[in-house]
């Protein structure tokens, strides 16, 4: 397979534009997980996405160590992302949380560390299940200062956020010394996020899409991407699959993409998107697809929490 293109982030570091997510439902067996990671590295994947919430940091670290030990890849060729969970989204817990993730991954540094959601929870070592009574407003200024400390200390090369609206990014940028390099959000042809995309481009923040195919097959996902007639017709015309058309559309918007598949043939197909283009007419058709948000964040809305409705959580961007 060819080399996956990279983009230079505002931090000055390069990020591969396609990464492999490590969260799966149902969870993969240890052997299936290791095989998928090794297959991905052999195919050319270098960007791997995990989080303390996912429970996959240890397995990913083991697979990375195996790949490095076998001479398949060098650490400096990899791009490893993890995320700060809400229970650790407190100024005095951020550095320790990152150090814990590094210990679990058995790595000396991350390439990207993200604030997972713009909300805090009561400090705890237990991350799941989520208790809505534990939600607290996030002290974004203080938490971000601790994130900046992580970057300055060399614990991570870049820092960013996930699930942030334009308004929340604006709030963060108003006090940040180091701007977020990345905002990882739900994005696909069914949820195009044009306002956020334009805002992020203007501010030099790279958007990275999760659920690029709608998280089909999961309890929180949707089949709307895979069953979209517009995407099906374009795929038929071009001799491509619907996932390839969706991923290509994201790539042509300048997005990074986190895909999730542990099947070797699908891993290969998902990066076979760089030697062809969607036409202006095809892009126009996709732009007209009716919009519908997928994983809306219902679990973070609570009558007693900082976000009492989805409108508040997403600042009307729903």
Brief rundown of the structure:
The chain contains 11 helices and 12 strands. By secondary structure, it is α/β, with parallel strands linked by helices. The mean pLDDT is 94.
Q: What does this protein look like?
A:
The structure is a single chain. By secondary structure, the protein is an alpha/beta fold. 35% of the residues lie in helices and 14% in strands. It contains eleven helices and twelve strands. The protein has helices spanning 30-43, 57-69, 94-105, 140-152, 166-173, 194-203, 229-238, 242-252, 264-270, 280-287, 310-314; strands spanning 6-8, 14-16, 18-21, 47-49, 79-84, 112-115, 120-121, 135-136, 159-162, 182-186, 206-210, 256-259. It has an eight-stranded parallel barrel with strand order 3-4-5-6-9-10-11-12, surrounded by four helices. The protein has a two-stranded antiparallel ribbon with strand order 1-2. The chain has a two-stranded antiparallel ribbon with strand order 7-8. β1 and β2 (14-16) form a beta hairpin. α1 (30-43) packs across α2 (57-69) and α7 (229-238) packs across α8. The longest helix has 14 residues, at 30-43. The chain is globular, with a radius of gyration of 19 Å.
Helix content: 25-40%
Secondary-structure element order, as H and E? EEEHEHEHEEEHEHEHEHHEHHH
Number of strands: 12
Mean residue pLDDT: 94
Low-confidence spans: pLDDT under 50, at least 5 residues?
A: none
The shape is: globular
What count of helical segments does DSSP give?
11
Strand content: 5-15%
Radius of gyration: 19 Å
């Amino acid at each position: 397979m060819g080399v996956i293109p990279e983009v230079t982030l505002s931090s000055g570091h390069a990020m591969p534009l396609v990464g492999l997510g490590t969260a799966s439902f149902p969870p993969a067996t240890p052997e299936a997980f290791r095989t998928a990671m090794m297959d991905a590295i052999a195919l050319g994947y270098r960007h791997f996405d995990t989080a303390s919430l996912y429970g996959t940091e240890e397995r990913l670290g083991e697979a990375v160590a195996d790949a490095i030990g076998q001479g398949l890849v060098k650490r400096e060729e990899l791009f490893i992302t993890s995320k700060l969970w809400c229970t650790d989204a407190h100024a005095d817990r951020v550095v320790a949380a990152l150090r814990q993730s590094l210990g679990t991954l058995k790595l000396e540094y991350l390439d990207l560390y993200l604030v997972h959601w713009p909300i805090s929870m009561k400090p705890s070592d237990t991350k799941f299940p989520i208790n809505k009574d534990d939600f607290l407003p996030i002290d974004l200024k203080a938490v971000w200062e601790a994130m900046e400390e992580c970057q300055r200390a060399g614990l991570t090369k870049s820092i960013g956020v996930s699930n942030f609206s334009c308004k929340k990014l604006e709030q963060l940028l108003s006090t940040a010394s180091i701007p977020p390099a990345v905002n990882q959000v739900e994005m696909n042809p069914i949820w195009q996020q044009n306002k956020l995309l334009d805002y992020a481009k203007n501010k030099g923040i790279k958007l990275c899409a999760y659920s690029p195919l709608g998280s089909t097959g999961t309890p929180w996902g949707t089949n709307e991407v895979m069953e979209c007639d517009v995407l099906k017709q374009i795929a038929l015309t071009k001799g491509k699959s619907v996932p390839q058309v969706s991923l290509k559309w994201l790539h042509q918007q300048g997005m990074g993409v986190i895909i999730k598949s542990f099947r070797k043939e699908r891993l290969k197909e998902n990066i076979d998107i760089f030697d062809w283009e969607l036409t202006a007419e095809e892009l126009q058709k996709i732009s007209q697809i009716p919009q519908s948000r997928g994983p809306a964040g219902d679990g973070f809305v609570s009558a007693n929490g900082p976000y009492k409705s989805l409108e508040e959580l997403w600042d009307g961007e729903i």
